Amino acid sequence: MIAWITSFFTTGNERSLKAKRHIIMSFVVRAAAMTVGLVLVPMTLHTVTVSEYGVWLTIASFIGWFSFFDVGLGNGLRNKLAEAMAVNDRRLAQQYVSTTYAVLLGIAIIVSLIFGVVQSFVRWEEFFNAPPETASDLAILVPAVFVMFMVQFVVQLIITVLLADQRPAVTNVIGLLGTLLTLFGIMVVQWFQWGSVLSLGLVFMASPLIILCFTHVYLYHTQYRDLAPSRDGIRFDLARSLTSIGGQFFIIQIAVVILFSTSNMIIIHYFGPAEVTEYNIAFKFFNIITAFFVLIATPFWSAITDAYHKGDIVWIKHSISSLMVIWFGMSMVAIVMLLLAPYAYRLWLGETVSVPFSVSMWMCVFVIISNWNSLFAMFLNGTGKIRLQLYSAVVISIINIPLSIGLLSVFGVSGVIMATIICLGVSAVWSPIQYYKVINRTAEGIWSR
Q1: Helix residue spans in 412-444 (DSSP H)
Q2: Taking Cα atoms as reference points, which of 239, 83, 67, 249 lies closest to residue 166?
Q3: Considering only CA atoms, which of 59, 79, 47, 69 is closest in space to residue 139?
Q4: For 6, left (φ over 0), alpha (ψ -120 to 50), or beta?
Q5: Cβ of 379: how many Cβ atoms within 10 Å?
Q6: Are 385 and 449 a contacting pair, CB within 8 Å?
Q7: SS percent in the chain: helix, strand, coil, step 5
Q8: DSSP string of 47-93?
Q9: How far apart are CA 293 and CA 289, in angstroms?
Q10: How many C-beta atoms lie closer than 10 Å to residue 89's C-beta?
Q11: Who's near 35: CB < 8 A, 6+ residues apart?
């Protein structure tokens, strides 16, 4: 066994060895982060009411919509930076980084000014269908959270740099530290009995931002000094190459936001904040499977970009086959989790929240299909063959909301999850077909773009 483990981490393609090391490191770190995250839920529910927690979850989803204003530049940078690093052109890499920061900073300033004008005319307690007594808290919380989100909007590009450099384990350490600081913040709020949606939102938003800002400053003064954004490195002519693929990622991002972030808004509008909490409890429980699968798959995006540009098709085929085996194993684990869900919820949360079995069942199906799509998305994103993904995203963004509303009128909260599953089912069919066509060099027309 010792010999096998030693061989596993010391033999093989350097690209594979780097991915293995980061996957194992990420597993340990992510397991710790998820443990802390699971502890956070019951602690939070003992700090604020179920309705207040549901309101905060909905606010977080709403603010997350503004992430699409990066117009796909983050993902465009990830691919272009990986390509520049593959040929060891550090100067070009630094120019890509500097240009992306400059453009995103400009977008953040413009969006913030517009939001500042618009938000003064909005009654947030009505917008989020929140209890009237939260009006004063929301009047402070929503603008404060938005400002912090806009700062994060820019500084989180350091995460993109780490992913392009095939170092996802470091990004998971950043996430763990942010979660730990959040836990500490909630403990302080609970100790001083400051429980409110305002204190909850500020802690959940500020804690990871503090860690991210510190990481941003530290890495650009040490390991990534040669990639640090600078005024001299800004080349707006490079923005076109970033947005050529980034523009397609932008549309896909909008579809993802509509698909995954509108559910809370729909549920709170038709049912109320308590049902949002039920939905999110089931999501957090089954998201354990998604988190670990994405943890394994994430290093392959930039690694596939590197391999594809070097013509290493054999390595790509082997990697995708391995991910398929892992997907199947994790799907079996998800089914076991479904059978144990009622007992797990009771052990985890006591009698605070009751989650219907139908919600858990459909969430399990959602996770299995979502992971299947992620498997092939890593390959297609890494190779830049995303035109079909773009068209599929447009279809999804059009049908998701009306489909969710139609199904929830019949099936309740489960109907919202069912609508998401149907939308994901479109990609679940065509994405493996495109993978086999591209990898075997038989892709033509839209399949090759």
Answers
A1: 413-439
A2: 83
A3: 59
A4: alpha
A5: 25
A6: yes
A7: 85, 0, 15
A8: TS-HHHHHHHHHHHHHHHGGGGGGTTHHHHHHHHHHHHHHTT-HHHH
A9: 6
A10: 13
A11: none
Q: What are the structural domain ranges in the chain?
A: 13-448
Per-residue pLDDT at 396 exceeds 90 = no
Output the CA–CA distances (angstroms, integers) from residue 265 to 400, 405, 447, in the order listed.
13, 11, 35
Q: What is the DSSP letter of 447?
A: G
- Any alpha helices (H) in 310-411, and if so which ranges? 313-349, 357-383, 387-411
Q: How confident is the model at residue 3 (pLDDT cuts 50, 70, 90)?
A: low
Confirm if 353 and 50 have CB atoms less than 8 A apart.
Answer: yes
Identify the residue whose tokens are 């836990």: 183
Q: Which residues contact 266 (CB under 8 A, 6 or more apart)?
A: 401, 404, 405, 408, 416
Which residue shows structure tokens 């099936």?
411
Which of 160, 145, 165 shows the shortest CA–CA distance to 72?
A: 160
The SS3 of residue 187 is helix
Question: Minimal CA–CA distance to 228: which of 239, 240, 220?
Answer: 220
Give pTM, 2 decimals: 0.70
Cα(309)–Cα(383) distance, integer angstroms: 8
Identify residue 69 by its one-letter amino acid code. Answer: F
Which of 54-63, 205-214, 267-276, 422-431 is the least confident region?
267-276
Beta-carbon contacts of 202 under 8 Å, excluding residues fewer than 6 positions away, are 141, 144, 145
Say which amino acid occupies 185: G
